[in-house]
């Protein structure tokens, strides 16, 4: 994600993949408590007459409830498959972005790449990357969705590797791609919102007097990327989390209709603030780390 003056890149695919995977893993470690809170809020069903009020309320309330009831480490549930996911998904979606963008505009293109081409390139790399990484996403959501269990009730999975093998054994190999439809939609859309908006915001900022390609510019561009991503991607994110956390849904459409019918349209923006907190934090940390990490791989 260098300033956009043409498709040529001064960093190899291997270098971009390695720096992207490292940056994505760093962002994951920092932001996963907010992601765990987001998943719990998204999976929480609406209170009905005679039933208890919702257990989780708001970003800080959900984080506090999880930490109090299950211990501080519970906020990092799913970190192992989360890191598996970021190595694959983070590395591929960012690593392929420049080559795919070059493919769409042509090798000899000169000037600022049009926003439409950036969006198209990011949609493509997001869809390809999550198709490979879907099993890691599934296991991460399954581990995050488990709350405090009554005494004597065993956990579904003892850890990430156990979850992969248990899902294959009990549900079949294809079950690792549960929720692939909304997940491809979500990650293609969010990837486009993040990468294209980061690229565009950074390009616009660098044209303003007094701004250079430094940490302040990366910070503003990262916040812009997080904001656009959560506004555009929240509905598909909720459907993805519900499908992965609850195997009773028959399809993406079934999950969408049942959520709309039972919980109303606002359910698609459940966990909006923790989602924005998470994606904003994630994008700032990821892009700041990425810009620094890429310096080690740049060709002289």
From the structure above, extract its key features.
globular; 300 residues
Describe this structure in words.
- This protein has helices spanning 13-43, 59-70, 79-95, 97-105, 115-145, 160-171, 180-206, 215-245, 252-263, 272-293.
- The protein has 300 residues and is mainly alpha-helical.
- Among the domains are: 85-178, no CATH class; 179-269, no CATH class.
- Helix 5 packs across helix 7 (180-206), helix 7 packs antiparallel against helix 8 and helix 8 crosses helix 10 (272-293).
- The chain is globular, with a radius of gyration of 20 Å.
- The two termini are 17 Å apart.
Question: Quick gist of this model?
Answer:
With about 300 residues, the chain is an all-alpha fold.
Using only C-alpha atoms, the radius of gyration works out to 20 Å
Tell me the helix content.
55-70%
Query: Helical element count?
Result: 10
Low-confidence stretches: 1-7
- Beta strands, count: 0
Strand fraction equals under 5%
Q: Structural class given helices, strands, pairing?
A: mainly alpha
The biggest sheet, with number of strands, parallel, antiparallel or mixed sense and barrel status, is: none
Shape: globular
Secondary-structure element string: HHHHHHHHHH
Mean pLDDT: 86
Distance, first to last CA: 17 Å
């Amino acid at each position: 994600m260098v300033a956009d003056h043409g498709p040529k890149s001064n960093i190899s695919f291997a270098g971009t993949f390695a720096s992207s995977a490292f940056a994505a893993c760093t962002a994951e470690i920092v932001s996963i408590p907010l992601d765990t809170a987001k998943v719990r809020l998204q999976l929480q069903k609406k209170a009905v007459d005679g039933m208890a009020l919702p257990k989780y309320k708001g970003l800080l309330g959900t984080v506090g409830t999880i930490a109090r009831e299950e211990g501080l480490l519970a906020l990092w549930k799913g970190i192992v498959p989360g890191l598996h996911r970021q190595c694959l998904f983070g590395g591929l979606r960012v690593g392929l972005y420049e080559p795919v963008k070059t493919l769409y505009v042509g090798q000899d293109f000169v000037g600022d790449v049009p926003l439409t081409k950036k969006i198209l390139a990011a949609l493509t790399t997001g869809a390809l990357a999550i198709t490979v990484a879907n099993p890691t996403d599934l296991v991460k959501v399954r581990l995050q969705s488990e709350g405090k269990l009554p005494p004597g009730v065993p956990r579904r999975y003892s850890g990430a590797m156990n979850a992969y093998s248990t899902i294959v054994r009990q549900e079949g190999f294809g079950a690792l791609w549960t929720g692939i439809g909304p997940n491809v939609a979500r990650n293609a859309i969010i990837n486009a919102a993040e990468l294209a908006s980061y690229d565009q915001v950074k390009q616009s900022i660098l044209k303003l007097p007094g701004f250079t390609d430094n940490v302040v510019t990366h910070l503003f561009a990262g916040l812009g990327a997080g904001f656009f991503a959560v506004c555009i991607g929240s509905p598909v994110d909720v459907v993805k989390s519900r499908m992965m956390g609850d195997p009773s849904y028959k399809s993406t459409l079934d999950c969408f209709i049942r959520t709309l019918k039972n919980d109303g349209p606002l359910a698609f923006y459940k966990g909006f603030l923790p989602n924005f907190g998470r994606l904003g934090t994630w994008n700032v940390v990821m892009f700041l780390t990425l810009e620094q990490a890429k310096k080690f791989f740049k060709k002289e």
